[in-house]
Amino acid sequence: MGGAEQEESFERFLKWAANLGISDCPTNLSHHSQKPTSCLGHSLTVSQFPDAGRRGLGAARDIKKGELVLRVPKSVLITRASLLKDEKLCSVVNYKTYSSLSPTQILAVCLLYEMGKGRSSWWYPYFMHLPRSYDILASFSEFEMQALQVDDAIWTTEKAVSKAKSEWKEANLLMEALKLKPQLLTFRAWVWASATISSRALHIPWDEAGCLCPVGDLFNYAAPGEESNDLENVEHLVNASSLEDTSLSNGETTDDLAGDQVDIRSERLTDGGFDENMAAYCFYARKNYKKGNQVLLGYGTYTNLELLEHYGFLLKENPNDKVFIPLEPSMYSFVSWPKYSMYIHQDGKPSFTLLSALRVWATPPNHRRSISHLAYSGSQLSADNEISVLKWMLKNCIVILNNLPTIIEEDSLLLSTIDEIENFHNPMELRKLLCASGGEVCAFLEGSDLQKGKNGSELMFSGKTKRVIERWRLAVQWRIRYKKILNDCISYCTETINSLSSQNISPMRTK
Ligand SMILES: C[S@@+](CC[C@H](N)C(=O)[O-])C[C@H]1O[C@@H](n2cnc3c(N)ncnc32)[C@H](O)[C@@H]1O
Q: How much is the pTM?
């Protein structure tokens, strides 16, 4: 579809949405005498935001924090229940053979079935404007996975891919019983459906698989602000293990601390949620917006790896990003905090629990009991103790960085090369030019394929290769941010060690 055609089709979609009662005008009455031509225009407009999610929703006027900016009636939400109104689908899905499939697997199958109806689907105007492909971790091939470089991230990706594969295999019988078209039975189609759900479904109280929300799923993401980190205090941490993880909009859970979980719940109230009284999904402004600014939604609290896993993007500045470093059991066995609370913050500072656990670990065994109350309250135990903890951190960050195949400067150079690859119009020449770059770039070129352009003369990368480039870029961006956090931690430790050494105050010698 060309640009103008695409625009027209999108306008038809917004009109379709308006006729179904979707509205960005809080006073809009459903029994309007005139048929609306768009569901947007009063509070929101669709715009391109190249630095934050591309297509998204901008403020059509100045908006005040807390204002209702969009309402999507329950009848328009795409849920398992609404899709299962199809009699054939319902009779097959409810057959007991498939009772072991999860709600999300069932929703994915129903979505593929509905997509298979093409133009005759009631939701066709919505489906037309869904992304064709996604960059979530489950879609990563071996090449992009290795580009992450860090074992933890590679392991998370392998797990995401194998989970998607096994869920697809489990759902195969049902999809075959529904006689889905061959292209909808493939693993690629399955990843598409799962990624559509993972990256776009919103939380609803009556179905853990969530719902797809036309127009409501055009909001891009901004991380919940610094305030969630301020919540990191002793009380929250001590209670962490007794609280269950909160199910996020994508049906996944985050391994975050209880304090952050409490924050997610209150965050969701100001952002959006299903309102029983209005029988609609309602979205509220989380802050004041000036006309033209992008209106953003906080889907939850995620690290960059979690954002990549569930949504297929990451943030340059993510206040919730974390780096976990390998710890020996002896380092956290003297304290009762969970291991997942021990990490390095995105600004390079060790988390409260990591620092406290290491302070206890660096204390001679016969003193541990007497200082544990100080460690639990977050106090430094002594200058010597603090210095040995920070030296341990420093050494380990250096070891981790030295074990990775490239340094940040090389990665940044590679990012510019990736941009060149993408913008180069004659890949044959590019191939010659880049083969000298060696390593990762050559591995990419060996795996890439070229195809004839529309006029038959020039050669172009295939769509598949373009998607590889996009994921490769994400992997390199991710590892740069990871290394930056470790570098910042090294600076933080060095500065603090220097300052403590110069003060030379040691109220309690422990080591
Ligand atoms: C619910 S959709 C938002 C609308 C989406 N941009 C669209 O055009 O359909 C979520 C997806 O938008 C993109 N996205 C959202 N927020 C983003 C951000 N801050 N930076 C980059 N991409 C973002 C990601 O691809 C994500 O999976």
A: 0.88
